[in-house]
Amino acid sequence: MAISGTDPASVRVDSWTWAIRLFKTRSAAAAACRSGHVRVNGTTAKPAQPVKAGDEVRIRAAGVERIVEVVRPITKRVGAVVAVECYADNTPPPPPREVLASIPQRDRGAGRPTKRERREIDRLRGL
């Protein structure tokens, strides 16, 4: 299915990320832009910042950063099959599970002593 009409030269970044289905609602896309989770060509983007073909958009959501390149700027929300044709996903693959498992986790209470534990340590030291 082709996109009807002529494609605009540039569109708003919040509208484009919503149109290609990276966000469920346009207001969620605008909120992500306002909170600094969306970058266009390395700079933090406001919701109305224009994007054009060839721009790199980085979106940080749920601890994962997606890197997409604008192939075709569109304003209307389209189906998933057509939306994939409008961007190139350059996101690196996630690390293997064994690498994630090897990252040490701190045991609860193993960090800074609590006030109660500090008083016990002071009492034992004779302070």
From TrEMBL:
RNA-binding S4 domain: residues covered: 11-73
Pfam family, one: S4
Keyword Ligase: yes
Source domain of life: Bacteria
GO molecular function: aminoacyl-tRNA ligase activity; DNA binding; ribosomal large subunit binding; single-stranded RNA binding
GO BP term (any one): cellular response to heat
Biased composition (Basic and acidic residues): 117-127
Chain spans, region Disordered: 88-127
Alphabetical list of SMART domains matching this protein: S4
Record keywords: Aminoacyl-tRNA synthetase, DNA-binding, Ligase, RNA-binding
Family the entry assigns: Belongs to the HSP15 family.
Protein name (database record): tRNA synthetase RNA-binding protein
